[in-house]
Amino acid sequence: MSKFNYFLGIDVSKEYFDAVVLLNSDKNNTVHNQFTNNNKGLKELIHWLKNHQANPENTLVCLEHTGLYGKIIIHNLLAKEFKVWVEMSLKIIRSLGIQRGKNDKIDAERIAYYAMKNQEDAQIYQPPREVVSKIRKLLTLRDHLVKTKAMLVKNTNELKGFEPELAKLSQNFSKATIQGIEKDLKSIEQQLDKLIKEDETISNLFEKTTSVVGVGKVTALFLICFTNEFTLYENPRQLACYCGVVPFEYSSGKSVRAKPKVHYMANKTLKKQLHMCALSCISTKGELKDYFERKVAEGKNKMLVINNIRNKLIHRICACVRDNKIYDRKVA
Fold it and tell me: Which residues share a beta bridge with 124?
């Protein structure tokens, strides 16, 4: 017997959000309202819920991942001790079958219905600690700065071979910008080091993760942030699947026999970082380089072997975190 009788579906946009409540677990008994996406609108939402006897004990709240726009809603509802389920929009869409037409109210109603239908599988949102949020924001900013610097440098280098005068002009005007970016990147690295040292849990996870051969600072921090300190998965295979390095069978009957391949739905940031780690491993003397050369000599596809190495790295990281031990290279 479910403890929830009310299901609140929220469709979020930048300026406002629509809320629909399914009353008494009845799909046909709903109430709808629209609120501004700010603290004032959240106060009005709480008051509106009270008027309909919806409280933290009997109400399950469900909304889609919307990044920045949904943060204030999640923060306020968690502060009021509501159970919040933040779900991937594609899962909601595909679970509802064929749908015709949409608007904000209908979307909120569909989210509420999804919460009621799948309440047994609800994953209650656990917000990351403040230090994890800071690290993730700094990593995002670092990524933007690295890409901007690379774009400026690449543009100048390409001009050198065709229009030297324009290349010199471009270099002169972008020099101060590049120097400023390099200075900011250095400051971000220092702040990241400081956050790691000041937090015992982060420091411990960072030490265990970076002890694995080929895994560097940025990859370790991305893993800590995206897994909410390695709490969002039950086994290494789940994390490997999330990172997009697990091959899946694709067959049907006698006619469809495609080669197993990784799925396109994955965390592309982690996949890219793990790919760079794997390339580092096969270019440095060690047992993973020996493994790569042996498998390629046997006729295996190079990308297949590299993907295997990415998978191995995840399993090694998870083992170190699970056992709270530094990776022992001698055992490997």
Answer: 85
**Three-point CA angle 141, 147, 148, nearest 5°:** 90
User: Which residue type is seen at 209?
Assistant: T
- The answer, as to whether pTM is greater than 0.85, is yes
Q: Which CATH code fits 6-121?
A: 3.30.420.140
**Nearest partner of 64 among 41, 84, 89, judged by Cα:** 89
CA 64 to CA 18: how far, in whole Å?
A: 12
Segment (H or E) for 306: helix 302-323
Alpha-carbon span 96 to 123, nearest angstrom: 18
Predicted confidence pLDDT, tens digits, the chain (332 residues): 468 999 999 999 999 999 999 998 888 899 999 999 999 999 999 999 999 999 999 999 999 998 889 999 999 999 999 999 999 988 888 888 888 888 999 999 999 999 999 999 899 999 999 999 999 999 999 999 999 999 999 988 888 888 888 989 989 999 999 999 999 999 999 999 999 999 999 999 999 999 999 999 999 999 999 999 999 998 999 999 999 998 888 888 878 878 888 888 899 999 999 999 999 999 989 899 999 999 999 999 999 999 999 999 999 999 999 999 999 876 54
Domain boundaries, the chain: 6-121, 130-198, 221-323
H/E stretch holding 89 reads helix 89-95
